[in-house]
Amino acid sequence: MSYEQIKVEVAERVLTITLNRPERLNAYTENMRDEVIDALDKAEADDNVRAIIVTGAGRAFCAGADLGGGEATFNYQDESFEEHRDGGGVLALRIFKLKKPIIAAINGPAVGFGVTMTLPMDIRVISNTAKLGIVFVRRGVVIDACASYFLPKIVGIGQALEWGLTGRIFSAAEAFERRLVNKIVAPEEVLPTARAIALDIAQNTAPVSVALTRQLMWDMLGASHPMEAHRLESKCYHWLGQQPDAAEGVMAFLEKRLPNFTMSTHKDMPDFFPWAPEPEFRKE
């Protein structure tokens, strides 16, 4: 696939995806969604990619859905009620299933989907001048991109409801204070900060260990008892301890050198993964 609405670059085992509609403040379209998913699919299969960054071209991160369609923007009457799937959710679920860490470098305004698309990402870095808004109720619709699942888990139900029910614009400082984002930096430091985190992961961590840790963290958010986590972590330890990356990690530490992890997230995952299969959207 050739890309028209995103740019991609791989350097030092880090893939950077740039939403590239600066004249529209990188407003979301179905084409953009499909291109991002394609880039993620390719990254998943590329052992040269150890971490992913998503950012925006120009002065914005993402202004949310492109409203150029006017009053028909959210009218899906050509699709059946039972089969329609929110496009933002399709992308959010693809991000959720990633075996590689993904970082949002929020370089400017992020509104609507511009916020919710980052929720299944692992780390969020934001410009201290950015404004955010979960504005869906002000457009007569509801939150998208599985945000009713992700947002309360990140910031708590009270804060999620306050932002979601008012649809108000809020500052990067508030987002940081309420733990929606991990780091708040000057605008020119957003991408370098995100890249430093990505490089730390790419250079020092075992890809399969990262993939399993990422999914353990997300999936155990819904666990009913810590025993569920204990069982899965125990399986991971039993399996990983017999793999070459565990031996390499120990020896690299003892020999005071950078590790050379060789296992692949698309070829060397354990048989018991995924432990939480995706449920069917629609039963036949």
Strand percentage, roughly? 5-15%
Report the strand count. Answer: 9
Rg on CA atoms, Å: 19 Å
What portion of residues is helical?
25-40%
CATH evolutionary superfamily of the largest domain: 2-enoyl-CoA Hydratase, Chain A, domain 1
Describe this structure in words.
The protein contains ten helices and nine strands. It has helices at about 30-45, 85-95, 115, 145-155, 155-165, 170-175, 190-205, 205-220, 225-240, 245-255; strands spanning about 5-10, 15-20, 50-55, 100-105, 110, 125, 130-135, 170, 185. The strands form two sheets. Strands 1-2-3-4-6-9 form a six-stranded mixed β-sheet, with helices on both faces. Helix 1 (about 30-45) packs parallel to helix 2 (about 85-95) and helix 4 (about 145-155) crosses helix 5 (about 155-165). It is globular.
Concise synopsis of the structure shown:
The protein is of the alpha/beta class and 284 residues long.
List keywords for this structure.
284 residues, alpha/beta, 2-enoyl-CoA Hydratase, Chain A, domain 1, Lyase 2-enoyl-coa Hydratase, Chain  A, domain 2, 2 domains, six-stranded mixed beta sheet, three-stranded mixed beta sheet, 9 strands, 38% helix, globular
Strands, helices and their partners?
Layout: E1 6-11, E2 14-19, H1 30-44, E3 51-56, H2 87-96, E4 102-106, E5 110-111, H3 113-116, E6 123-127, E7 131-133, H4 147-155, H5 157-166, E8 169-171, H6 172-177, E9 183-185, H7 190-204, H8 207-219, H9 226-240, H10 244-254
Helix pairs in contact: 1-2, 4-5
